[in-house]
Structures are given as C-alpha cells and as structure tokens.
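User: Fold this; tokens only.

Assistant: Input:
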Amino acid sequence: MSVNLQKGQKVDLTKGNSRLRHIMVGLGWDQIEQRRGFFSSKPAEIDCDATAFLIATDTGTIYGGGDIVYFGNLQHTSGHVVHQGDNLTGAGDGDDEQIFVDLENLNPAYSKIVFVVNIYQARERRQHFGMIRNAFIRLVDADTGSELCIFNLSENYENMTAMIFGEVYRKEGDWKFNAIGQATNDNDIVSLARRFGFQTN
C-alpha cells in the first residue's frame, strides 16, 4: 500500500521489505494554461528536466559529471541508475520522466541519490514553478509495479526555477526516502549540482 508523504517526511523502503531490489522514481508535473492576448504569440511550452545526483559516501558531494544522470547522460557508468529520457512538455497523465535505480547493486561508495527538476532556460523564457501544477515524485517497486510512496508538492513556488524533489539514501544497511520539496532559483543542472559540492574546471 502506497504512503502519501508530506514535506519533510521520511519513509523506510527496505526495512521490513527485504525483497525490494529495484525502484522506479517517477516525476510528474502539469503546465498551467497560460492566457495570451489577441496579438501575442503562443507562450513557449515549459520543459522540465529531471536529474539524479549520486552523492559520494565519503565526501557527501558529487564526485564528477558522470555521477549526474540526466537527459544528456542517461545512464550512470555503473549501469545502476538509468534515466528513461527527456519529456519536453509534461503533457498527459502519469509520470513525465522516470529514473530506474538498482538499489541492490549500487556501489557502497554512494550513500544517497538526490532527485531534482529544473525548468530548461527558465530565465530566458520567463518561466517558473508558479506556472506548474500537480507536481509529484513517487517511488515504485520496479519488479512488482507496486507504488511504495508518493509526495505531492502543493506549496506556492512563484518565481522559483528549480526544485529538489526528494532523496533516496542508505542508512545502517537500509534504504529510505526523504520528501524534500525545496524550491531554488537555479537556472540549470550545473548550478543545482554545485549545491552538492560539484565543481567545474
């Protein structure tokens, strides 16, 4: 039975559920219909991009670009975190983007996976999360198809251009999920990654 989470809540994924091996992290959102004047052009579609940051156990940071799984790097070098591809509009029901994680075989060098979403070219297009509705992150047992938990983001995110949705983390041998829901003003994936110690040359 799926658990509905509130912001800041945590849930055990593997404690009492030792058969859990693989999860699908589904992220979804809908664009609010934008009004336009008679002579104005149609507003650009809002293109949200989901990303997974693999966080190193020893440093608590992102080692390098290979540990950022997104539309430009769909699979981690280990093969244990896989992005299913970019959705350019968020149209339709259900998950807009999905990321699969092999919890059982993920290298112990990684203690956490953080799931974030940013609006592509948000500042250039004058778009923000106040123009998004029905945003959520959910975790599904990828082997059985059973939904484990869902976190619906319901706050007002006016003028915010990115979002830290949640994190899956390892603690004392068990995997847990933390519903974060922290909005930021980051305009791209790299600036979001810098929040987790990522350094560029």
